[in-house]
Design brief:
This protein is mainly alpha-helical. It is about 70% helix and about 0% strand. The protein has 12 helices and no strands. The radius of gyration is 24 Å and the shape is globular.
């Protein structure tokens, strides 16, 4: 019987004995990576072009509004109106960023590697959702700070003027948060349905833009109630309806008209909550099915 000739070589592998950070740190790493991805940080120069172009546009608009106000002494755009006016850019930002956050991982098949860690199936989509919502809030809230600085320190009203301006800014930041949460929830859900980024981007744009004609059709119906509820049919006008109801003059200054929602303001608020909750629930269900494959 021949003797065995096999040899076991020690090539230096050692058992890991360092700290095991666990779920919270994995979630935080996913969130920070997603936030960096949204703005192209840590990626190629090509990946930075679109997000920073959008950042440049919204910042330029805010700086122009602040400059005009300092010259004429009148508000040309409230903080909440800024979020409304920039919503069309937010749609395209979501259409580009949401597929980068989730579609790439679906297509490359790396999700089993994520889920091999101490990471519950719900944490992955929630971390991506939080990252996208934060990016959108920064996109809308950062320029509002530019407007605030321009208005607070050129008004000549002293600390009282700064305080009054801050009281106007805070609702604007909250309204930007509403835009961010609604758009991130809808956009990430749509993007998670396919691993092809082009299809995901087209789907996001379609959901936001193709619902607008529905609003237009319903708003010319003979029923006044239908007209006032028509803006529920699109995420963009839904957020505008909530803003008109909740912010009042802070969103729509005297002499201007907002979204004509009549007395249905609470209905719009409830609809926004249900939309976000529904999108999050479907997103979690989507990744439960992905993980089960």
């Amino acid at each position: 019987m021949p003797e065995p000739t096999g040899v076991i070589h020690d090539i230096g592998y050692q058992r890991y004995t360092g700290p095991r950070l666990g779920r919270r740190h994995v979630f935080g790493a996913l969130y920070l990576h997603g936030l960096r991805t949204a703005f192209g940080l840590g990626r190629s120069a090509k990946a930075k072009i679109f997000p920073w172009l959008v950042v440049g546009i919204v910042t330029l608009v805010a700086a122009a509004a602040a400059a005009v106000r300092s010259q004429i002494g009148e508000v040309v755009m409230t903080y909440a109106q800024f979020a409304d006016n920039m919503s069309w850019l937010v749609i395209f930002f979501v259409a580009v960023v949401a597929p980068e956050l989730v579609s790439r991982d679906l297509r490359s098949g790396v999700l089993p590697l994520y889920f091999s860690r101490p990471l519950p199936r719900s944490d992955y989509p929630l971390a991506k959702l939080l990252a996208l919502a934060t990016a959108l809030w920064l996109l809308l809230g950062g320029p509002q700070l530019v407007m605030f600085l321009g208005a607070a320190f050129t008004s000549g009203a002293g600390m009282r003027g700064v305080w009054n301006e801050l009281l106007d800014l805070l609702p604007g930041l909250l309204y930007a948060g509403l835009w961010a949460v609604v758009f991130a929830s809808v956009g990430l859900l749509v993007a998670s349905l396919t691993g092809k980024r082009a299809f995901a981007a087209g789907g996001v744009v379609a959901v936001f833009l193709m619902t607008t004609p529905i609003v237009g059709t319903l708003s010319i119906m003979p029923s006044r109630a239908v007209n006032e509820l028509a803006f529920l049919a699109s995420p963009s006008t839904l957020v505008g309806g909530v803003g008109t109801w909740a912010l009042g003059d802070l969103l729509v200054p005297e002499g201007q008209s907002g979204v004509p929602i009549g007395g249905f303001g609470p209905v719009y608020a409830v609809a926004a909550v249900l939309l976000v909750a529904g999108c999050v629930a479907l997103l979690l269900l989507r990744y439960r099915k992905v993980a089960a494959r």
